[in-house]
Amino acid sequence: xxxxxxxxxxxxxxxxxxxxxxxxxxxxxxxxxxxxxxxxxxxxxxxxxxxxxxxxxxxxxxxxxxxxxxxxxxxxxxxxxxxxxxxxxxxxxxxxxxxxxxxxxxxxxxxxxxxxxxxxxxxxxxxxxxxxxxxxxxxxxxxxxxxxxxxxxxxxxxxxxxxxxxxxxxxxxxxxxxxxxxxxxxxxxxxxxxxxxxxxxxxxxxxxxxxxxxxxxxxxxxxxxxxxxxxxxxxxxxxxxxxxxxxxxxxxxxxxxxxxxxxxxxxxxxxxxxxxxxxxxxxxxxxxxxxxxxxxxxxxxxxxxxxxxxxxxxxxxxxxxxxxxxxxxxxxxxxxxxxxx
Amino acid sequence: xxxxxxxxxxxxxxxxxxxxxxxxxxxxxxxxxxxxxxxxxxxxxxxxxxxxxxxxxxxxxxxxxxxxxxxxxxxxxxxxxxxxxxxxxxxxxxxxxxxxxxxxxxxxxxxxxxxxxxxxxxxxxxxxxxxxxxxxxx
Lengths: 341, 138
Fold this sequence. Notes:
The complex is a heterodimer of chains A (341) and B (138).
Chain A: H1 5-33, H2 41-79, H3 89-93, H4 97-126, H5 133-160, H6 171-174, H7 180-189, H8 194-216, H9 225-259, H10 267-272, H11 279-302, H12 309-340
Helix pairs in contact in A: 1-2, 1-5, 2-4, 2-5, 4-5, 4-11, 8-9, 8-12, 9-11, 11-12
Chain B: H1 3-26, E1 44-48, E2 53-56, H2 59-68, E3 73-79, E4 86-88, E5 93-96, E6 109-112, H3 115-124, E7 128-130
Antiparallel strand pairs in B: 1-2, 1-3, 3-4, 5-6, 5-7
């Protein structure tokens, strides 16, 4: 185990969320099993008190857990100087590679679903009768599972992480001609894929932003259900397709150009070394902008209720605005860097 | 479009312009091979034929870059590890020893301005003299 302020904070978060998450899972399951529609007034009051405690606990644990995603990368960055041969986070990821890969996948997933749950809870909390309580409790169960898996992974990784072996530099992996990030665009656009990739990157992002602004416009409410659904589904589909496009573009075009190292394709060097000081902001804006589209989907799926309709609509507009803003800001930042660098 | 949206976009514009300015004018000391911060005492400057200069954090990085771009290199300037003087690589004495200058790439090659310093270092850290890694064939 490497002991520094980052590992200690991470371990504290992991242990806290593991223990509270375990209790939360048990309490949620117990509440769900005793959930009845017709109950006496006394039982109802006790049930409400317990439900309030569960939701409060869930809010605390999930908020703490969401913070663990960026902190995880701060922690990996702090290991760079400890691992022999590591020049950036990539070198650190070569130790316990399966665990790190698992954590790198589960962290954005948990951030996404936890964010979705918190928004659904906000809708439920805004209505005095709490019409979505049962749905939120049901949704909380798989979240607890993800939370426990994520926390366990963190604890295992922190305890087992020992910089005993020498690792290779990122250049030996990312800068080879047969790197995976170059193979896909090469297969699609040919050997000189850089320009085509730029065009695809800008067209998908701009289309997505236009669609997001369409749903924010005043004419949106007057649209017939059919075109409305087409636009909403298009948003989700383009957002999903946009994720690999942005990732590959950052590996192949944008990262090297912004770092002013045209032959170096390491995304970890791009985000962690301070070469591009606002790189974490750029990536963060993209992540939140994309997740917000998914959050809108979750809200539409879970908060479909006559009682909650006005609150849901208001929240949807806010999340839609957040997504449009984050993606616009993301594309603005990338463009400014590309023009001025 | 709300006022908050435009304020946010203006903040983002300012942040990105500041980021670019920092990158261009304040943070020029990054290794051109691996992007690490360049420590003055181990700095290697490769002067290109168009008079531009590439900075490197260690002899290892400079050598790796040099091998791939030999045709555009005019000359190489290394730093004397004793006094910090900048000297042409053909005037320097190079020693490969057990002492590592850069943990991230295990660079063990050291540059000295004086033969005596090179010999003392070799003796102290179990090293041996090596040829100039930046020899350009005319």
